[in-house]
Design brief:
49% of the residues are buried. The chain has 15 helices and 14 strands. It has 410 residues and is of the alpha/beta class.
Length: 410
């Protein structure tokens, strides 16, 4: 039977951006949600700002939690389910860390016992507040928290992969304690797959939590190398979905394309609709896709200063809540492609990261071979070198042919 793919959007409030939590306006939120629901979407991803919700390690503001629940209830009234990211963390080039983790109180957010205990309490509290809401999907630990753990962050909290795994396991357990039976996960930006010294690893993404999240941004060197209409660019999201499967222990582990957007100037505004449609069409050809959540709902207001230029225009809707061409393109795809039953991807590209994960990054052997196979119509997936001869593993995934990057590029 075909399965229903979830289509949603990362909710960026049209008034005040995420600072709206300081001046929470239910009427404005409802109007935003009306404009999202009108696109035919079925869920939103919501971002409490961690310092606003937990300004002291032992103070989680009850009023802030009530406002989060009110937002979730307003979403339910419009047929929208809600995923909540807890530790914000990093958003649109800004870091939002509580004062009790920095400067005079500088402590590692991944390893300090008191900080981690505070994080557990915070995530458990948010999850418990929403646990009885039928439209609550579950918690994401935070948005791209791996960016705090290594360069290019200017002041990283250095940890080992083992420490990252223990931190993720502990915080996922806190989410499950607060809201048993919901889907709880964590989310890394693509350094987890591409950066050799990143302590958050592909194994963490593909094996911890109830499903795998991938975040696809073509400003990472993909569009620069391949152009706005290049195969690698229009299939980057699909590539990350299929790359994640190399490390998954469950051959049918669901994968959530949790963030993807059309960043200018690499994707000029007049081409955003075409990029949106191509990206979503291509990722819908990936088996075991849980859903697609576009970044983002509404533009950032020009009244707000110091954002990178590309951030201001990423919304599907303007600040006046009017749909842009990309929104109309996404709405068409949603209406036409709600059911999802792609054929298995029978050709697997071998992934060997002995020399480092950068072989999977733009310009790397795995990345470029995947793009070439895709351009040739092969519909590739990936398999770890250690599993390339595992007949049971290959059969469980429907793989009938295994090729190496060298064989592709000869």
């Amino acid at each position: 039977m075909p399965s229903a793919v979830r289509f949603g959007v990362n909710y960026t409030p049209s008034e005040g951006w995420f600072h709206h939590w300081l001046d929470f306006d239910p009427d404005s939120v409802r109007a935003d949600l009306d404009s999202i629901a009108a696109l035919g979407l079925d869920h939103i991803r919501v971002f409490p700002l961690w310092p606003y919700f937990q300004p002291n390690r032992t103070l989680i503001r009850p009023r802030a939690v009530e406002q989060l629940v009110a937002l979730a209830d307003a979403a339910a009234e419009r047929g929208l389910d809600v995923n909540v990211d807890g530790l914000q963390g990093h958003l649109s080039s800004f870091d939002f860390l509580p004062a009790w983790t920095g400067t005079w109180h500088r402590r590692n957010i991944f390893t300090d016992p008191e900080v981690v205990e505070g994080e557990e309490t915070y995530l458990r509290t948010l999850a418990a507040a929403l646990a009885d809401r039928p439209n609550f999907i579950g918690m994401t630990i935070g948005n791209e928290v791996n960016q705090f753990a290594a360069g290019p962050h200017p002041d990283p909290d250095r940890i080992t992969p083992e420490q990252a795994g223990r931190w993720l396991t502990r915080l996922l357990a806190a989410c499950a304690e607060g809201a048993p039976g919901k889907l709880h996960l964590h989310a890394s930006y693509d350094a987890a797959w591409y950066q050799d010294d990143q302590p958050f690893t592909p194994e963490h993404s593909a094996r911890l939590g109830d499903l795998t999240a991938v975040h696809s941004w073509v400003f990472n060197g993909t569009a620069q190398r391949h152009g706005r209409t290049g195969t690698a660019t229009e299939h980057h999201a699909a590539y990350l979905v299929e790359l994640s499967k190399a490390w998954a222990e469950d051959p049918h582990r669901p994968v959530w394309l949790q963030e993807v957007g059309a960043p200018a100037p690499l994707i000029p505004a007049e081409h955003a609709a075409a990029f949106t449609e191509a990206t979503v069409d291509n990722v819908l050809d990936c088996p075991d896709l849980w859903g697609v959540t576009w970044w983002c709902s509404h533009d950032v207001s020009r009244d707000l200063a110091d954002f990178p230029e590309l951030e201001y225009g990423l919304g599907l809707l303007t600040n006046e809540r009017r749909p842009k061409p990309a929104a109309e393109a996404l709405a068409r795809v949603v209406q036409e492609r709600r059911t999802h039953r792609p054929a298995p991807r029978t050709t697997a590209l071998v992934v060997d990261t002995a020399a480092g994960r950068s072989v999977c990054a733009p310009g790397g052997a795995v990345f470029e071979a995947f793009a070439r196979l895709t351009a040739d119509g092969a519909r590739p997936t990936t398999v770890l070198e250690s599993r390339a001869d595992d007949k049971d593993h290959l059969a469980a995934r429907g793989i009938t042919e295994v090729v190496t990057p060298e064989q592709v590029t000869q």
